[in-house]
Amino acid sequence: MKFKLKHSQETVKGALQITGSKSESNRLLIIESLFKNLEISNLSNSDDTQVMKKALTSNEVEVDIHHAGTAMRFLTAYFAVQEGRETVLTGSPRMQERPVKLLVEALRSMGADISYERNEGYPPIRIQGKKLQANAVSLQANISSQYISALMLIGASLPEGLTINLEGQVTSTPYILMTLEMLQRSGIQGSFEDNIIRIEACAAVSPKTIPVESDWSSASYFYSIAALAEEAEIRLSNYRKESLQGDSCLATIYQQFGVETSFEENSITLKKSKCSKPASISEDLRNSPDIAQTIAVTCLGLGTACKLTGLHTLKIKETDRLVALKNEIEKLGGEVVISDEHLELKPSAILKENVEIETYNDHRMAMAFAPIALKVPVIIADAMVVSKSYPDFYSDLEKLNFEVIKD
């Protein structure tokens, strides 16, 4: 289904309740399944989290996680320690093109029994769950943080805990710290220092309720809206200043576009008044690659040049996000240069109207391009792909007086 988006007002005002972070939610669901006794509040209503919940309660041999990359990584480790259980973990055609080899190799080095059903290094994979005796593992530090987090999440269930030695420069550090904090909030001890992660063994955790902060990645689209509007005041709940999420750097990055963030007790307010726009910006997003699409489209809408680096993980997401961004920005009239790990946007001319944006089965492509409707009407193809992380996205746009025309 295609949605045409338009917005004709200079000022954007409103208040929204954003769903819980799927990153926090999915980590807590693994911990809860391993140790019980946890209650989770403000759980994400995203497709990815629903897929995770279903997989963790499934009694079937084949578990299909569709497009959910986080679920694929976390569940690979989870099922590897489910003693006596056989699981075939599979996903969508795109998921079967996304590598899991480095994680599988790490688990195999710990004694896990995992084999490939079709192509070496890729899902589907067959996992024979067993009790792993290893207490240490080494892997490259610059791989996806989801591989590292997957190992961290099962570490406390091992007889002697787990020490993870990271070799080289660590990327996506905030996500590793998020995993560590989720474990600690659950009652599991661990540390991360000098490229060494230690997770202590834990037999059981005490009963407790753990709240999930709302998703900062989802907030990014409203930062973009605020930046592209002439004036804006948007309140978002539930957020906190001392966030675990790397994407909370949005509050600092978007100051360049005149968007100021006020932190209240359980919410943030984004405000923009008329101001000059920057001629160019440069950001290293190695710790927050999921907001690259949003920032690039914001810059396109403002006619601002940008250079975004640290984007090497974007090539193995739901799509090759660098190629997808280049394709769709150029449809709108922008000029983009990409490499394996950076994107450079030239200052844009007049934007083309009623361009149809392909979404490539990628929720972030749909949501990142939606704010451009403040400048020109835009059509989002396969618009409901947003349900992967943010099912209420379009209804929330309507609360901010966007016109959403369904085709």
UniProtKB/TrEMBL annotation:
<feature type="binding site">
    <location>
        <position position="22"/>
    </location>
    <ligand>
        <name>phosphoenolpyruvate</name>
    </ligand>
</feature>
<feature type="binding site">
    <location>
        <position position="317"/>
    </location>
    <ligand>
        <name>3-phosphoshikimate</name>
    </ligand>
</feature>
<dbReference type="InterPro" id="IPR036968">
    <property type="entry name" value="Enolpyruvate_Tfrase_sf"/>
</dbReference>
<comment type="pathway">
    <text>Metabolic intermediate biosynthesis; chorismate biosynthesis; chorismate from D-erythrose 4-phosphate and phosphoenolpyruvate: step 6/7.</text>
</comment>
<feature type="binding site">
    <location>
        <position position="22"/>
    </location>
    <ligand>
        <name>3-phosphoshikimate</name>
    </ligand>
</feature>
<feature type="binding site">
    <location>
        <position position="172"/>
    </location>
    <ligand>
        <name>3-phosphoshikimate</name>
    </ligand>
</feature>
<dbReference type="InterPro" id="IPR001986">
    <property type="entry name" value="Enolpyruvate_Tfrase_dom"/>
</dbReference>
<feature type="binding site">
    <location>
        <position position="69"/>
    </location>
    <ligand>
        <name>phosphoenolpyruvate</name>
    </ligand>
</feature>
<dbReference type="GO" id="GO:0009423">
    <property type="term" value="P:chorismate biosynthetic process"/>
</dbReference>
<feature type="binding site">
    <location>
        <position position="146"/>
    </location>
    <ligand>
        <name>3-phosphoshikimate</name>
    </ligand>
</feature>
<keyword id="KW-0808">Transferase</keyword>
<dbReference type="GO" id="GO:0003866">
    <property type="term" value="F:3-phosphoshikimate 1-carboxyvinyltransferase activity"/>
</dbReference>
<feature type="binding site">
    <location>
        <position position="145"/>
    </location>
    <ligand>
        <name>3-phosphoshikimate</name>
    </ligand>
</feature>
<feature type="binding site">
    <location>
        <position position="27"/>
    </location>
    <ligand>
        <name>3-phosphoshikimate</name>
    </ligand>
</feature>
<dbReference type="GO" id="GO:0009073">
    <property type="term" value="P:aromatic amino acid family biosynthetic process"/>
</dbReference>
<dbReference type="InterPro" id="IPR023193">
    <property type="entry name" value="EPSP_synthase_CS"/>
</dbReference>
<feature type="binding site">
    <location>
        <position position="146"/>
    </location>
    <ligand>
        <name>phosphoenolpyruvate</name>
    </ligand>
</feature>
<dbReference type="Pfam" id="PF00275">
    <property type="entry name" value="EPSP_synthase"/>
</dbReference>
<dbReference type="InterPro" id="IPR006264">
    <property type="entry name" value="EPSP_synthase"/>
</dbReference>
<feature type="binding site">
    <location>
        <position position="144"/>
    </location>
    <ligand>
        <name>3-phosphoshikimate</name>
    </ligand>
</feature>
<keyword id="KW-0963">Cytoplasm</keyword>
<feature type="binding site">
    <location>
        <position position="290"/>
    </location>
    <ligand>
        <name>3-phosphoshikimate</name>
    </ligand>
</feature>
<feature type="binding site">
    <location>
        <position position="321"/>
    </location>
    <ligand>
        <name>phosphoenolpyruvate</name>
    </ligand>
</feature>
<feature type="domain" description="Enolpyruvate transferase">
    <location>
        <begin position="57"/>
        <end position="396"/>
    </location>
</feature>
<keyword id="KW-0057">Aromatic amino acid biosynthesis</keyword>
<comment type="subunit">
    <text>Monomer.</text>
</comment>
<feature type="binding site">
    <location>
        <position position="23"/>
    </location>
    <ligand>
        <name>3-phosphoshikimate</name>
    </ligand>
</feature>
<comment type="function">
    <text>Catalyzes the transfer of the enolpyruvyl moiety of phosphoenolpyruvate (PEP) to the 5-hydroxyl of shikimate-3-phosphate (S3P) to produce enolpyruvyl shikimate-3-phosphate and inorganic phosphate.</text>
</comment>
<protein>
    <recommendedName>
        <fullName>3-phosphoshikimate 1-carboxyvinyltransferase</fullName>
        <ecNumber>2.5.1.19</ecNumber>
    </recommendedName>
</protein>
<feature type="binding site">
    <location>
        <position position="364"/>
    </location>
    <ligand>
        <name>phosphoenolpyruvate</name>
    </ligand>
</feature>
<feature type="active site" description="Proton acceptor">
    <location>
        <position position="290"/>
    </location>
</feature>
<feature type="binding site">
    <location>
        <position position="388"/>
    </location>
    <ligand>
        <name>phosphoenolpyruvate</name>
    </ligand>
</feature>
<comment type="similarity">
    <text>Belongs to the EPSP synthase family.</text>
</comment>
<feature type="binding site">
    <location>
        <position position="98"/>
    </location>
    <ligand>
        <name>phosphoenolpyruvate</name>
    </ligand>
</feature>
<dbReference type="GO" id="GO:0008652">
    <property type="term" value="P:amino acid biosynthetic process"/>
</dbReference>
<dbReference type="InterPro" id="IPR013792">
    <property type="entry name" value="RNA3'P_cycl/enolpyr_Trfase_a/b"/>
</dbReference>
<dbReference type="GO" id="GO:0005737">
    <property type="term" value="C:cytoplasm"/>
</dbReference>
<keyword id="KW-0028">Amino-acid biosynthesis</keyword>
